[in-house]
Amino acid sequence: MHEVSLLENVREILQDHAREQHFTQVKKITLEIGCLSGVEPEALRFGFSAVMKGSLAEEAELILTQLEGQGRCAACQSLVKMQYHYDSCTLCEHPFVTVLQGNEMRIKDLVVI
Question: Would you say domain 3-112 falls under CATH 3.40.1550.10?
Fold first, then answer.
C-alpha cells in the first residue's frame, strides 16, 4: 500500500512548513488527488490517523478532493476528459492522448494554528 509512504511524505512536508512558518498544529488538511494518480482515497483515509499519530497533524481533519483527468489529443489537439491513462480522444477517437492533469496528488489547503 503506497498510500502509507505518500502520507509519510505529507507528514514530512507539514513538519518542514511548520518550522519555516512557525505553526504548531494542523487543524485541517485538504489533499487533492488526481483520478489518474493510482492513489486510493479510502486507503489514505484508513492510514491517515496511524501515520499522523504523534505529529502536529494528529488531530487534523482530512478532506480529500478529486481532480479530473484531462489530456490533449495528439491528432486534433482538443482538450478532453480522461478516466484512464490510455483513453482515446473522445472527439476523434485517436489513440494517443497526452495527460495534462490528473496524475498528481498535492496538499491543496491547510488550516493551522
Answer: no
